[in-house]
Amino acid sequence: MHSDDYAYYLMGFSPSAHLGHYLGWSGGFVTDYISSILLSFNNTVYSTINILAFFLLIYFISLIPVKIFNNKNTFSVMSFLLIFILYWIANPNPG
Predict the structure, then answer these.
(1) 41-79: per-residue pLDDT in tens?
(2) What is the DSSP string of the chain?
């Protein structure tokens, strides 16, 4: 855990804590609950869900140029690798 993860972990599933946080600070009610749920899992489950979400993000972004420039319904490994490398280079805070 780092940054504000500890605060979300301590909020748990309390609706009043999340509502107070939503009204006073974050403005993201659903994402706060998702953070609390994910942080309640052990580290292995959390890491697995995190890498799966990252993989799906890169996968769906890499399908965009394939659908625009190539009318086939095929997955392009080169497009996936290019998007992954660009994301890795351009993301200012991967942690």
Answers:
(1) 888 888 888 889 999 999 998 888 777 777 666 677 888
(2) --TTHHHHHHHTT-HHHHHHHIIIII--HHHHHHHHHHHHS-HHHHHHHHHHHHHHHHHHHHHHHHHHH--S----HHHHHHHHHHHHHH-S---
Q: Which residue has the tokens 């403005």?
A: 27
For residue 69, which amino acid is it? F
The encoded tokens of residue 51 equal: 């890498």
- Decide if 9 contacts 1 (C-beta within 8 A): yes
Query: Which amino acid type is present at position 7?
Result: A
User: Is this structure's pTM higher than 0.70?
Assistant: no
CA of residue 62 relative to chain centroid, distance: 16
